[in-house]
Input
Amino acid sequence: MSSCKVLQTEVAASDLEHQLKADMKKQSQLSDDGLTMQCPSWLNQEYMEQCLRSHYNDNELEILKFQAMPCLGKGENYLGVMTRVKVEFLLPSKNVTKTRSYVVKSMLQDKIFEKVYGSDVFLCEMIMYENVIPKLKALLSDISENEEIFARTIAVDRQRSCLIFDDLNERNYFTVDRLKGLNREIVELMLRKLAKIHAASAVLNERQSGCLESFQRGLFSRHNDKNYSIVTGMFDACKKFVAQSPGLQDISQKLEKLKDNYMELCLRVFDPMANHLNVLNHGDLWSTNIMVKYDPVSSKPLDVIIIDFQFVVWGSPAIDLWYNFNTSLEEDLHLNKQDELIQNYYYTLRDILKKLSFQGHIPTLHEFHLQLEEKAFYGLHSTCFIQPIHRCIDTGDADFATLIENTKRGMRFKESCYTKNPYCQRIIRHLLPKFERKGLLCLNQ
Output
């Protein structure tokens, strides 16, 4: 649930001009009404000047105008501080003046956050942008796959634990409305790029002797059980909702019996299996981590950029697929089209693996489906416990403390994720019986 998220904008596909105006209005509201965190004190003109001098390799670069403002409101980001910085600067070496906007992502200074995640997630993302992503891009470039997949990085600052990116909003990339989800066109664009990331990572790991297998701290990890309270709190809230739903009382009883074994079942999803195709997963691939560019005339989606690599994890591609499909799609896609989406993803994955001369076994489509089914518990978890958080409507209490703490306030927020969201209610009532018929609520699975 996380983050290089530039300003959350709810794109109305029918009116891009209206969207741009809404973006500006919302930015003003975020700055005025106290919904966002304060900008880091160290993020000033002098700091940005140093970063830009290094990026442009010009020690005479001078910032003429500087403005910093928070990017996000409540419910849009739980794990980081996002700041938009607008600058006008002079490049003496080229005798030009430029105006640019950047997004600075820095670590959340929160005691609860540090207790749960420490600095691991931010270190992971810095390693990704500094070391891993350039190698993935190079592999794809070798086979003439040069389309842009990742945000452009201006600086990786380990001392400050921050990353600086080109502001994708300036290039007309926006997040979709997280309450509406991704439509078919956006999902197909995203899956094509995701398949390329996955395929390139499998080849990189093969050529460099398991170099990516140390990425083991995803949203679930056998190295860290401190997010257990998030799971138990959402479990209790979900069970309460299911128990009160007509026709689901028997399933509620099965959920209760599953509680003691629930974390282990989630952890098994993240265990790499030697007989499966394993890749480097994004790990948090929901709608606000996908930036979309639209045609200014037709409003048709043209391109996507995948952002926020804090929770990358080595394992089955089922981790990304089940998570995305069961948290972020439009309703019809979520309920009826997942097999079609998997097929389209698979064909790109297979083709890129072949072009990169992958030496391991490339599963057939049938084999791939069987591998995904072995990790299908993550589809249940994403539908019933992650989606309600991502699509929460009442964001008044939406912060990291309410996620991690099962206090009265925390449980009130978690329960509201179910009781105040008709969409999630429909999805859970429709899919939970299907998960039960698949045996995903059995103690021995």
Q: What stands out?
A: DSSP finds 16 helices and ten strands in the chain. The domain at 122-151+172-438 is CATH 3.90.1200 (Aminoglycoside 3'-phosphotransferase; Chain: A, domain 2). Confidence is low (pLDDT under 50) at residues 1-36. The chain has two domains: 45-106, 122-151+172-438.
